[in-house]
Amino acid sequence: MVEPLRRRLRRRGLENLTSMAGLLPAPLLLGGLRGLSHFVRYTTYERRTLANLELALGPATSSAERRRLAALVRRHAARQFAEWLRLSRGAPPSGPRAGRGAWIEDAVALDDSVALLDEQVARGRGGIIVTAHIGNWELLCARLRRRGHRGAVVGLERPRDSTSRWLAEMRRGYGVETLPQRTNPRNLLRVLADGGVLGILCDLEVRRLAGEFLPFFGRPALTMTAPAALARAARIPLLPARCVAPEGGSYRLAFDEPLATDATLPRSERAGELMGRLNRRFEAWIRDTPEQWAWHQHRWRTKPEELAAIPLAGR
Asked: Least C-beta-crowded within 10 Å: which of 51, 121, 175, 216?
């Protein structure tokens, strides 16, 4: 089937911007993108951002404060996109063009807590990194690859969306493969069995995947349970990690304490309990740096009564 026109135009725009990123100095590229980001104020993305800010933060913020925060969200998104464009022109950490990615090591400082990942991988069962759409998750992945960790990320793959292919090509450029969300779980377990690292973004609402409605900012949010199932099958904990830039400064990549399945609970409750703890961890991160989370996403779109009426095959 032919890709929709708007997606083809988006892909063409990405290709042109990628070429420009190789010609413009980084500060000039960032300045241009931040200028363009002002136009987002007139789109559905801005309206959804403001609605989600009100829903999550509610009476703790005024309308003026939420508008100010939305402006900071746009500003950070421009920075993030500029960094993605640089990543798209990168190279794996080994090989003749390895120097093209050296800037990643300067852009992201590693917290001492990265030892938690090293220790887990050293046990020979691989590691499952769970993170959210906060800070710059692509830089998180690229920085760990530069450090020597190998593996893959689980990402959204649409058959008629060249944007998702652009993202997969960007990751492949700096040495990381993308496995689609619909991939056979055996492929994920194989990465772990080989001692590799899997990266999963867990703060999305994905109706076609197994999930439970769990509290997120005090409201039920459809939460994928696949990470918990994967951790149980591999007999390893989840490793929460974030790559954020406090107060808009330099990025710092840090790990929180591992989250393990509570084996004392009934089997039917274990996945939901583990993912509930992860949701609370994400909440704390977002409150620390609210301007760096993707507030435009449909996090609370689906209601429990709506999903119950939809057959799994139709999700």
From this structure: 51
Name the residue with tokens 């304490």. Answer: 257
* Model pLDDT, residue 193: 96
Nearest CA among 128, 145, 256 for reference residue 193? 128
Give yes or no for a contact between 151 and 199, defined as CB atoms under 8 angstroms apart.
yes
Q: Which residues pair with 201 in a beta bridge?
A: 131
Prediction pTM value? 0.92
Q: Which helix (H) or strand (E) holds 79?
A: helix 63-87
Mapped onto helix, strand or coil, the DSSP state of residue 265 is coil
Q: Each residue of 210-229: pLDDT tens digit?
A: 789 999 999 999 999 999 99
Q: How far is the C-alpha of 253 from the C-alpha of 131, rounded, in Å? A: 11
Element (H, E) at 200: strand 197-201
Tokens representing 241 are 């990690």
Q: What is the pLDDT of residue 1?
A: 55
Give CA–CA dist 2/111, Å, rounded.
46
pLDDT value for 211? 87
